[in-house]
Task: inverse folding
């Protein structure tokens, strides 16, 4: 069915290409991404540097390739943190109900009321600029959405007959959650995660652009965009290529997320 | 099926937008035609990095605006020499160095009509020495009004640099009518070439010309300062014609772009300040002079600075900027790029290369943080370069961008291994205070490196009343400091002003804080 959805297929192919390129960066990159050669600064795209060189004479293509790894790795890690926190608190709240549910849902509602990016900015600013801190900041803001959705699903599933049957058979709560509830909410969550991947990449690049994320000399797309800003008019390729990389990656994840959503559960998730 | 079609259309639209954006940067604006007649209005719009920030020139007003609204008793001219443009026409030091007589300029009035006289001078100096200027002229014992236009100042101790100490813009003379009882300036009323007429915080402030200025009224009728903190945005505003002029301060990378544009002028002059990297001499690894020297030998500033900041800054030549001419040693010993020597110095200091390529000593790896100002484009660039060159000699450097207040704090509290920052505490033409109160005396603010020998030399300089002996001491102190490599000079900063071609006759100053003084003679042509 995925094969029938052409756009999702395009997304998938792009993602595969990008991930491969990121993993093989040390082999594919024509130059050392950190090597500074001031006699070759701001070279336009050409034979020596396929995508040109930046303001310190570093190869833009090599930096983009290494940056792929940085962006994808951090995004996956952030996603991991979000999922862990979201699933834990979502299930806890949804399954236990009562006072625990009340407390957790109030915290979630308060956090949801803040604009996400502003809160992430504040947290990252407080912790100090570094990629790890930005990951923590984004995870701290994003997990609430997942927790809320998971809570909703858990509440609807825990009244289902097979859960009642399991309970009648003497399964304890932990077994019920792990064997019967989690497997049933996992597929929609994966779809959601794919859809969200794009926005996480975008947020990380955004915070790096603002100087809070990756620190020099590490290549990261958002930071590369920011570095190129000063040279926008004399050397536009410093902004075009990282910008395009972000655009294409985010678009690919969104296309694939859309496709997966149609594939898995067309009715319940379209409303989200 | 419908949804899929919509998505396909979205995909096409995004692709088209991306392509359009890709090429939109290539179009060029036609130069705006400048009308020849009638005579253009004498209104100048300046894009400025900092807000006015306050009304008191001694405390909170932006350092760069003070010299437009106020005058000092003694002032530095555009070439950084004590001239006769101040509110004292001449002055005289008794041989003991403790008694100074100032002959004030006659027929001068503050913007509000209050006359400038001995009483106004005394009130101002009293306010400064007891309040905001205490650190600078707290050594004044008492002030005597001889007649309406003469004051005699008695000092507690001989101070050779007294006249120079009166020149920084924070020692400005404010109308006595604008001073509150606690000695704060509550209105910006001075004697300067321009008057403050409007101020909207963090947005804009407007100055109008002082028709009665004692050196003749300026040609410009009005100067509008628009506050634009970001250098790149200022540059775009200049190109778009929204502002006529901007300072290249902390924006040298932006200035480079304008060097070859026919519609714009770049006015520059070697400034008073330099950019330096201080080492923290109190903790590992820079408590060892060999490590400091190794780092200083590892970066080829002679090639890096011209390549990155061509024409905007000079590679290290001396302890201070060449603007300090006679105070400098003729042949200073500055480290010259020599990575091999740097590596062997590190080996000598016990930092040996391990299998992994890093250097270690007693199980610790050789690493250091380098702090720099996050708003400073050229320092950001150069820090990355330092990081790369130090990697070549086996030192791992972590970069830390700090806001300007945090950077100052880091310097004061010694929260750094290396810190790239401007060379301060050289507010006027004699750099004595730089050693004594700034960095190199055990009682100074930042105590970068101190020793008894150095203290002794600096004390002798502070007491000396003989010009020739003083110059000799200046050079010896600099040589003594350089010998311990507690810092390395990164570049000597040019003062740079970017302007539209229609701004004529602007002359820039050597003094950083007097940057806008040249506006008195500028005109729109």
Result:
């Amino acid at each position: 069915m995925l094969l029938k959805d052409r756009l999702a297929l395009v997304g998938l192919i792009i993602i595969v290409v990008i991930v491969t390129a990121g993993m093989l960066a040390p082999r594919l990159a024509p130059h050392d991404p950190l090597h500074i050669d001031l006699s070759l600064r701001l070279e336009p795209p050409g034979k020596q540097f396929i995508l040109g060189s930046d303001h310190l004479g570093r190869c833009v293509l090599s930096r983009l390739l290494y940056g792929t790894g940085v962006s994808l790795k951090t995004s996956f890690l952030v996603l991991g943190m979000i999922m862990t926190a979201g699933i834990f608190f979502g299930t806890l709240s949804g399954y236990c109900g009562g006072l625990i549910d009340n407390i957790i849902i109030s915290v979630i509602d308060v956090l949801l009321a803040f604009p996400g990016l502003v809160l992430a900015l504040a947290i990252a600013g407080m912790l100090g600029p570094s990629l790890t801190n930005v990951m923590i900041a984004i995870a701290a803001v994003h997990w609430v959405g997942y927790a809320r959705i998971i809570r909703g699903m858990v509440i609807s599933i825990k009244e289902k007959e097979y859960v009642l049957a399991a309970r009648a058979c003497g399964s304890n709560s932990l077994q019920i959650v792990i064997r019967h509830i989690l497997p049933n909410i996992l597929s929609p969550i994966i779809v959601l995660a794919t859809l969200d991947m794009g926005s996480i990449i975008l947020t990380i690049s955004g915070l790096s652009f603002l100087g809070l994320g990756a620190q020099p000399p590490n290549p990261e797309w958002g930071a590369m965009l920011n570095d190129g800003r000063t040279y926008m008019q004399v050397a536009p390729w410093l902004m075009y290529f990282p910008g395009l990389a972000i655009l294409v990656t985010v678009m690919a994840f969104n296309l694939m997320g859309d496709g997966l959503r149609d594939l898995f559960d067309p009715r319940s998730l379209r409303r989200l | 099926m419908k949804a899929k079609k919509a998505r396909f259309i979205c995909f096409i639209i995004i692709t088209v937008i991306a392509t359009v954006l890709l090429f939109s940067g290539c179009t060029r604006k036609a130069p705006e035609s400048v009308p020849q007649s009638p005579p253009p209005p004498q209104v100048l719009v300046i894009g400025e990095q900092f807000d006015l920030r306050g009304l008191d020139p001694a405390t909170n007003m932006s350092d760069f605006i003070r010299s437009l609204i106020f005058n000092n008793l003694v002032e530095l001219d555009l070439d950084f020499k004590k001239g006769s443009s101040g509110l004292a026409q001449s002055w005289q030091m008794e041989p003991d160095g403790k008694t100074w007589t100032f002959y004030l300029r006659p027929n001068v009035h503050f913007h509000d009509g209050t006359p400038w006289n001995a009483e106004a001078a005394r009130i101002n100096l009293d306010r400064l020495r007891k309040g905001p200027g205490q650190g600078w002229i707290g050594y004044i014992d008492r002030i005597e009004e001889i007649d309406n236009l003469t004051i005699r100042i008695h000092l507690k101790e001989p101070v050779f640099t007294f006249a120079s100490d009166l020149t920084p813009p924070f020692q400005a003379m404010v109308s006595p009518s604008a001073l509150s009882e606690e000695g704060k300036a509550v209105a910006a009323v001075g004697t300067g070439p321009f008057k403050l007429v409007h101020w909207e915080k963090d947005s804009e402030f407007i100055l109008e010309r002082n028709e009665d200025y004692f050196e003749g009224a300026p040609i410009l009728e009005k100067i509008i300062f628009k506050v634009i903190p970001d250098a790149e945005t200022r540059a775009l505003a200049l190109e778009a014609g929204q502002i006529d002029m901007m300072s290249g301060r902390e924006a040298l990378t932006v200035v480079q772009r304008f060097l070859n544009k026919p519609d714009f002028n770049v006015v520059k002059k070697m400034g008073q300040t330099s950019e330096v990297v201080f080492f923290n001499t109190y903790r590992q690894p820079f408590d060892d002079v060999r490590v400091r020297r190794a780092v200083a030998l590892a970066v080829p500033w002679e090639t890096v600075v011209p390549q990155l900041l061509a024409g905007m800054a000079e590679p290290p030549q001396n302890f201070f900027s060449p603007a300090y001419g006679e105070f400098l040693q003729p042949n200073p010993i500055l480290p010259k790029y020599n990575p091999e020597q740097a590596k062997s110095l590190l080996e000598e200091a016990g930092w040996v290369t391990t299998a992994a390529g890093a250097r270690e000593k007693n199980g610790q790896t050789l690493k250091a943080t380098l702090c720099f100002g996050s708003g400073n484009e050229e320092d950001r660039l150069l820090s990355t370069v330092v990081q790369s060159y130090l990697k070549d000699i086996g030192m791992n450097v972590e970069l830390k961008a700090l806001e300007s207040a945090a950077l100052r704090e880091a310097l004061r509290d010694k929260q750094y291994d290396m810190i790239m920052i401007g060379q301060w505490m050289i507010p006027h033409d004699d750099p004595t205070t730089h050693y004594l109160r700034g960095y190199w005396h055990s009682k100074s603010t930042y105590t970068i490196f101190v020793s008894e020998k150095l203290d002794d030399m600096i004390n002798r300089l502070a007491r000396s009343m003989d010009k020739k002996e003083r110059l000799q001491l200046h050079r010896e102190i600099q040589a003594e400091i350089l010998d311990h490599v507690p810092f390395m000079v990164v570049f000597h900063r040019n003062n740079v002003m970017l302007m539209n071609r229609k701004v004529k006759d602007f002359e820039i100053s050597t003094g950083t804080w007097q940057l806008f003084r040249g506006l008195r003679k500028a005109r729109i042509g």
